[in-house]
Prior knowledge:
The protein is α/β, with parallel strands linked by helices. It is built from 15 helices and 12 strands.
Amino acid sequence: xxxxxxxxxxxxxxxxxxxxxxxxxxxxxxxxxxxxxxxxxxxxxxxxxxxxxxxxxxxxxxxxxxxxxxxxxxxxxxxxxxxxxxxxxxxxxxxxxxxxxxxxxxxxxxxxxxxxxxxxxxxxxxxxxxxxxxxxxxxxxxxxxxxxxxxxxxxxxxxxxxxxxxxxxxxxxxxxxxxxxxxxxxxxxxxxxxxxxxxxxxxxxxxxxxxxxxxxxxxxxxxxxxxxxxxxxxxxxxxxxxxxxxxxxxxxxxxxxxxxxxxxxxxxxxxxxxxxxxxxxxxxxxxxxxxxxxxxxxxxxxxxxxxxxxxxxxxxxxxxxxxxxxxxxxxxxxxxxxxxxxxxxxxxxxxxxxxxxxxxxxxxxxxxxxxxxxxxxxxxxxxx
Length: 384
């Protein structure tokens, strides 16, 4: 089938994770091959949109409405990819929204089974999900590219310890190393925290300069301005965390930032400790690694250079794009053979259903605005 139509459905197509996993690689693929790519939030899609698609990619679906969309696509024999980058069937306790994810886990399992193919981000995640799916395909994560400005390390400027995470983490083993260098008056070091992990550090008694979570481009710009940055990446040993990708190591490597990580997957799967990063499995190891890199600009630069070479050679966007191409090409061919023909009555039903969806969405937006305005109190002016 020439020039297939690819529809991507996500809760927020403009989000950080949608950009990394779907928008960037699929847009590059579409531009190269002449495919047509559309992005839509789940709440805005209708039957006409779904009919238009030759393949539908559904990202991290966890709601009953998304299950109904998948059931309709199955009935029409329109190929569906369930895109997943975390072990949503078994969230760790520290994950934001873990309780809600546990409630949604049975629904996620059903949708994994309904998809024609599941695309997953790491080999460990593939192994965990394989029993729940018909077919699963590895679509790896990647570094941001070889053309970003890279940090240069020297002995004259202060050193920055950088810790970034959108969720809280167990930071205990790492804290000993941070306190060790913070207490040493002979070195100039600053601790910078980005995202929710700043709360974990402050609760552990580690003072830090805080930044809120931010879009990827803003994050790169912020950390690129840091002096002599060292990336500290603590991680627990849960099955959920082991199935994540080492994307933070990839990001830091492409920015010239050496990484010190917990000696757990996924970082233990990609880092050669002492060669292109450092792995730590005890408070003593964290303290030694942090102190060594703080005091030795040559080692910081050597590790950063080796990590950059590894990520640009083994974890590139081109490899991710190639994996998507294999998967989607297979499904387009399958869909062309199996898709049900559309009858005139179905076209009419689709048009009516789409119009009703539009009206329902407009009423929902109106009601949301009405309730919001009801809770806004008028400005009170002091009496004269």
